[in-house]
Every structure is written in C-alpha cells, then in structure tokens.
Amino acid sequence: MLVSIAAAFGAFLIALTVYLSSFRQRQKPRLDLAKDLTCAQGPLQSSSQPSAEKEAKEAPPELLKTATAAVNFDYKSVEPIAYRPFLSHKHYNIGITKCTKEEWIQIDRNYLDRIRLRKQTLEQYPDRCHAINHSSGAEALAELFEVVIEHLPARFPTMFGLDTASNIFTNFVTDTKYNLKDFRTTPRQMTRLLVENIEEDFYMMCPDGEGGYVQQALISCFPNSFMPPSKLGLSMKGIHGPVPGLQEKIGKGIHLTMKSMQGGSIIQRLGWSLQFQGPSLMRTGGNNFEPKPGEVVGDLSEPQDLSQCYLRIERQSLARLPETRAIAFCVRHYVYPLEDIKKEGNGDELADEIQSMPQKLGYYKRRPFWQRDVDMFLRGK
C-alpha cells in the first residue's frame, strides 16, 4: 500500500567487479541480443549512444581483489539484519555510506525460501521480472553476470563453487549445477541464474552520452508498488518524478553522486515504508493518493489489520561497472512485523517519523487512510 522511498528512487543501482583481467580474457559465447529478450518498448534498440569502448574505463586495483571468504559460513544460523532507517528522522536524505565487497550480497536464514519464491515468481511473471530496453542494457547485464558468478564462490565458498576449467557454477544449497556456456548466451538465461541464486534485484542505469543515465535493463522479482518494465527508458529524473518533493530535495545530489563514482566503487543507502495486507514482496500496484487542487482532506481513516502490517526496508547499493560504465542499482528487501518494532521499543520513534512526513509525501503514501490505527498501535494507546 505504501510505496517505498526506494521504489520512487527507483533506479539507484549496483554491481561490483571482481577480477577484471580474467573477465576480459575469458572466452564466452557471443551474446545474442535478439534472442529471448523482453523489450517493454518495442524492438530492442541498437545503440545511438556512445559505445562503452569509446568511454574511459576504470578499474581501481582494490576492486580487483577477491572479497574475503566467509569461512565456515552457515546461512541457517544468520539472522536477518534489523535495519531501522526511520531513526535518522530525515525523510528526504540520500543517506549514503560506503559498502564493502563483503557487504554487497547478503545471505541469511531466509535464503532458501526466498530463492524458491524468486524462481517461482520469474516463472509465473517472466515479462515483469526481466526486461531490456536497449543493447547497452544487455551488455551491462552480461558484465554484472560475470561479476556475480565470480563473487559468490569467493565470498561464500560453503554455498557456491566455480570450476573455470569445465565452466560449471554450482549452488551447494540447492544442489544445482549450471553450465555457464549455456547461461552466457542470452540475457534471459543470465537472469534465470541470478534469480535462482541471490535475493537481490538489479536495475541497470546506462550512460546516455550526455552525462546522465537511463534505465535500460532490470531483474526485479520484488518490486514495491510499481510495474518494473514501466521504468525502462527513463532517466533518473523521470523515475523520481512521482514522489512529491524528492526531485527538488535530493535529485541533484543523486545525479552528482552517480556522476562522481569511480569504476568498481560501492555505496549504499536505506529506504523504508509501511506495507499492509501481509509480507508479500512482489507488489506491482501503485495505489497512491493525490488530492485534487484545493481539495480539503478530512478524516479518511480506514480500519487496519495491524497483524498484517510490516515495516519494509530496501537496502540499496550502487556501483559503476568498469567495462560498460553502467551503474548497477541493487535492492535487497527486508520485512519486519510492526509488532516487532513496538516490542523492541521503537514504536514511538516510528510513529513520530510518520507524523513528521511532509504533507504531500504523506498523501502520496496514503497516510490519511491508515495513520490513526498505526499511531495508536505503535504508541500503545
């Protein structure tokens, strides 16, 4: 019900690069850009944009090192991180912090259930979960694919393996082997492997040749109140447009942050929202509220089943891929029952943060319909 700041942010992006030299030298089948592509805006566009070969490429030495291995890692014993970004008391705040290679992909005890859900979601809604609008998006996705299949065995050797001689990638948890010769051929195949092995969604922002970025590819199984393909072909300004005040407050900061990023560097931020009617992570309906000009908004309170209300957190990480120069925005989702927030003693803080939302933002998030019940619950009234 409540659209997340991240959804409106809707295309900060991520990726991390490892072993660039081996990436350049590896012999891969030719990528078929025309086969198995889901193109939201008609035929796949071939580039009128500058090719990546014409742009400067960067690969800071520190980003070519392998992430530190999590030795004896047991995902079943790892609790989900309890993020609480509302405690910062800032509604329009980029809130950027550095992100290490070790923090990039996160795995916890919910891993197997989430992976099964993502696989099922992709099979049921392939054209929602995967889309490419431009050849530059396919190329960026191919680079991201190589980064991930090298990062996972390096970081989580108890869960993943990579045999470079036979081109076999293995997930020990699901007991699945992937012949990379087959999965490197099309973006759809790459998407399938990524969806079946990690929980993160990816939105690929590609250089537009004029100093900006346009979203040209995505892998999105868990959107928060938007239809993923509807964002393809949009600039950052276009993606941010629906959220009242966001572009004015931090739009310039987002653009400058992306423009200044060096190849391979990683940053992160958090966004939060309230979610009603259960913990489901795939929500494509945008049911925002926008009063008509001059309309007086009265009491619109509706009874809420707060046992089905959740705090939804989006951990967003952003990095520039050195080969394609795309920026990959990665989103990892967490949901926490509202009851947990109250029990841990943060009920008043969350209620205060909801109350302090700027009016237009509060309308956008449908606050008039649910605030009464949520406020009373969080404050124990």
SSE layout and pairings?
Layout: H1 5-9, H2 20-25, E1 97-98, H3 101-104, H4 111-124, H5 126-129, E2 130-132, H6 135-155, E3 160-163, E4 168-171, E5 176-179, H7 180-183, H8 187-195, E6 201-207, E7 213-219, H9 236-240, H10 246-260, E8 266-275, E9 310-320, E10 327-337, H11 338-343, H12 347-355, H13 359-364, H14 367-378
Antiparallel strand pairs: 1-8, 2-7, 3-4, 4-5, 6-7, 6-10, 8-9, 9-10
What are the salient characteristics of this protein?
381 residues; alpha+beta; 7-stranded antiparallel beta sheet; 3-stranded antiparallel beta sheet; 14 helices
Notes on the protein architecture:
With 381 residues, this protein is of the alpha+beta class. It contains 14 helices and 10 strands. It has a 7-stranded antiparallel β-sheet. α6 (135-155) packs parallel to α8 and α12 (347-355) packs antiparallel against α14. It starts with a helix and ends with a helix.
